[in-house]
Amino acid sequence: MAQSPGGFRVRRVYDPPEEGDGVRVLVDRLWPRGMAKERAEVDEWPKDLTPTGELRTWYHAHPDEYAEFERRYRAELAAPDHDDAVGHLRGLAAAGTVTLLTAVKDPGHSHVPVLLAHLRG
After folding, report:
1. How far apart are CA 110 and CA 1, in angstroms?
2. Torsion, Cα of 8, 9, 12, 18 (10° steps)
3. What CA–CA distance (Å, rounded) separates 99 from 8?
4. How far apart are alpha carbons 117 and 78 in whole angstroms?
5. What angle is formed at CA 32 by the lines to CA 80 and CA 101, rounded to 5 degrees?
6. What's the number of domains the chain is made of?
7. What pairs with residue 102 in β-bridges?
8. Taking Cα atoms as reference points, which of 49, 68, 48, 47 lies closest to residue 58?
9. How far apart are CA 44 and CA 100, in angstroms?
10. Do residues 4 and 116 lie in contact, with contact meaning Cβ atoms separated by under 8 Å?
């Protein structure tokens, strides 16, 4: 479990829910493999805040180019059509804990740090 400033924390969706999770938000574009929806206890799933399918495919083909992935994902998040979803998550975090859930094995080297930085922006 990783606590982050600003009311956000990050956990893997495969870890059991904890009392302090607050609002549980899945931040992956695809539903986690092998995870039952009841077991995940996801409150929200804003797919539009996740990297596009095109960017995900590109990053899987170029895993050593994280800086370029980060640049491209920041550009996606900067689009005005994300403003409402970002504002919603910021509002939730201002009111309490928001746990961002991901299935990635290494959340620190994924889209999650980029999204966190944007949410804190």
Report:
1. 16
2. -110
3. 6
4. 12
5. 60
6. 1
7. 12
8. 68
9. 10
10. yes
Q: Which two tokens stand for residue 17?
A: 């829910």
- pLDDT tens digit at each of 121 positions of the chain: 454 444 999 999 999 999 899 999 999 999 999 999 989 999 999 999 999 999 999 999 999 999 999 999 999 999 999 999 999 999 999 999 999 999 999 999 899 999 999 998 8
User: Closest Cα to residue 116, out of 81, 90, 92?
Assistant: 90
pLDDT (0 to 100) of residue 80 = 96
**Residue 9, SS3?**
strand
Q: How far is CA 100 from CA 16, 38, 111, 120, in A?
A: 14, 17, 11, 13
d(CA 10, CA 34): 20
Tokens standing for 76? Answer: 């996606």
Regarding pTM above 0.70, the answer is yes
Q: What is the spatial distance between Cα 110 and Cα 72, in angstroms, rounded to a whole number?
A: 13
Written as six digits, the tokens of 94 are: 């201002």
For 62, the domain range is: 2-120
Q: Measuring CA to CA, which residue among 115, 109, 118, 93 is closest to residue 27?
A: 115
